[in-house]
């Protein structure tokens, strides 16, 4: 039996639909787990993709803390006799999944881009060494816990609706006191879900010049990214940072403007389907991984690019 | 306050990595203390000025000794090296390290937010669960008041601030501090600091639950069509045309 921990807000998040899709591909009985306030409201949706849906809205699940959630998921996995437990490879999922694995004394596979069954366990691929190396890993164990990289799996298909069960859990408070959350809101498409991304680096020279990045992003409907250098300089919020310490993106096209292409940055965007670079330095490492590019001064090229993109759009 | 820092030796971020027969080949690759772990070492030295009651712990091959010496040269008081050539899965690592933590009984264990070799974010959380402690991952701000910790850390859609009672596992990253460079006198002193050697077998762990089957460098072939930008308008139009007609992305 495959247990799937589903992330949701008012409906299932894309990560959950991908996990359920991965579970369907692996084959076998699927149990979807919905934990926290609002779980009941998405149960019917989840039931379209799973054989069973387990819902728990215990007050101790709010606000989220990794310790309490890990106990909830591990307890449900034991009760349901799961042999595979799937969680999202989001930042939150990757601080939760290892705790579930320890509680179950399971084997843990992290951030899988590809998953398949082998005799007695799972084989996955994932990235390592700052995303420069693809590793194939195998785990054979009574229980395997696996986190799955976002945007790598086909979305689940609907099937005959599964049964919904409300479950009670014996939870204890984690002792963590959440003081506040600052959500980084953007009116643009979310970076990790964008099919196009325009990113600015130190080469822009000033925070004001990010208007050139936003200008192009708005015309082509792209998300906006920034390098660590631009974030460290205080030009852009951390939420826009792409790279080892920021977000990992894999869009259809990644347009890097004034970005030199340090290894740490490449690890966050090197898997993009198309990489486009605009930089005045022909020796910039970003050009080595670029499909298309313009060698020249971004201050004259970007306005021309925005105009040309507008012409195409209109 | 007693502080333990978990550290690793990884390929330097700027170093080229290569494989031989589907396995990593580190021959000739410059190795370094993992940059993410360095933030934890620095934070420990800021909490306990002078380095008293700070311990570095490394679980890995004999080459990890360079990373340990680096941490000691930065100011860490002493180190424990659990030496092994086996690459253990994170659940097994947590079992071994739990035993070390229970022996040392620290208030805080610092761990790098993501390791530059395995690209894993799991060790801090796994060790926290093994100890039944709380964790703060991706920490960018940390203040301590006796055994109370207040922190700001990154979550999927922004930032969260929280407080908890120690002990806790705290994973570190860019933004928390600026790690110091070891001075020459401190590098000399580090050579005399205590480095205790042990093995995973002493903690009853000898096999990994996860096997590395293959390691491959898969570089996507890039088209590398570069346009001279001397005439910005012509270059821009040509690029947009390529993106629309050839790449079909806009």
Structure, explained:
The complex is a heterodimer of chains A (314) and B (250). By secondary structure, chain A is α/β, with parallel strands linked by helices. Chain A has helices at residues 14-26, 39-47, 66-79, 91-104, 210-220, 228-232, 263-269, 298-313; strands at residues 2-5, 30-35, 52-56, 84-88, 107-112, 114-118, 121-128, 133-140, 144-148, 163-166, 177-183, 196-200, 223-226, 253-257, 274-279, 292-295. Chain A has 2 domains: 2-166, 3-Layer(aba) Sandwich (Rossmann fold); 191-313, TPP-binding domain (Rossmann fold). Helix content of chain A is 28%, strand content 28%. In chain A, strand 14, helix 7 (263-269) and strand 15 form a beta-alpha-beta unit. The longest helix of chain A is centred in the C-terminal third of the chain and has 16 residues, at 298-313. Chain B is α/β, with parallel strands linked by helices. Helix content of chain B is 28%, strand content 33%. Chain B has 6 helices and 15 strands. Chain B has helices spanning 35-47, 65-74, 90-104, 123-131, 184-190, 232-246, and strands at residues 3-7, 9-11, 18-20, 23-25, 31-33, 54-60, 78-83, 108-112, 134-145, 148-155, 158-165, 168-172, 195-198, 210-216, 225-228. The interface between A and B is large, with 94 and 81 residues.
Which of globular, elongated, flat, extended, rod-shaped describes the shape of chain B? globular
Per CATH, the architecture of the largest domain in chain A is: 3-Layer(aba) Sandwich
Spell the H/E element sequence of chain A: EHEHEHEHEEEEEEEEHEHEHEEH
Radius of gyration of chain B equals 22 Å
Terminal-residue CA separation of chain B: 57 Å
The percent range for helix content of chain B is: 25-40%
The percentage helix of chain A is 25-40%
Based on the coordinates given, report the CATH architecture of the largest domain in chain B.
Answer: 3-Layer(aba) Sandwich
- Reading the helices and strands of chain B in chain order gives EEEEEHEHEHEHEEEEHEEEH
- How many strand segments of chain B? 15
Q: What is the percentage of strand-forming residues of chain B?
A: 25-35%
Overall pLDDT confidence of chain A: 95
Structural class of chain A: alpha/beta
Superfamily (CATH H level) name of the largest domain in chain B: HUPs
Q: What portion of residues of chain A belong to β-strands?
A: 25-35%
Coarse structural class of chain B: alpha/beta
Q: CATH homologous superfamily name of the largest domain in chain A?
A: HUPs
Spatial strand arrangement across the major sheet of chain A: 5-9-4-1-2-3-10
N- to C-terminal distance of chain A: 52 Å
